[in-house]
Model the fold of this input.
Amino acid sequence: MSLSLSREFRREIIEHCLGAAPVEGCGLFAVEHDVVTRIYPTSNAEASPSGFTVPPEEHFAALADAESRGWLLGGVFHSHPNGEARPSMVDVVSALDPEWVYLVVGLRGTPDVRAWRIREGEVTELEIR
Done:
């Protein structure tokens, strides 16, 4: 499986995460047929450099907007301010939805975005097109 992510959305995700540093930046995104249709940058309720929680009211607002347009919330993005674009053990343990795609933004060095599926502790990288 793969995910289509435009250059513009990729840039917006990276800028949001850089702006949140030194804490993890995060947000949600909507999809239609494995194509990202909108991103929803959010605040991080944890305000932590090693964890994130999308505030419930921001999650609900993104869900309501996506559903009003016939889209699905397809996943979440978050950054690792001092790390690589791969899920940490905390990410794997706290992955909530096995159908979601988890975009991880590594900010060490040149920012990098990679996509992952996390199901029952099993992590699989997805191609970003």
Remarks:
- The beta strands are 2-3, 26-32, 35-42, 72-80, 101-106, 112-119, 122-128.
- The CA atoms of residues 14 and 111 lie 7 Å apart.
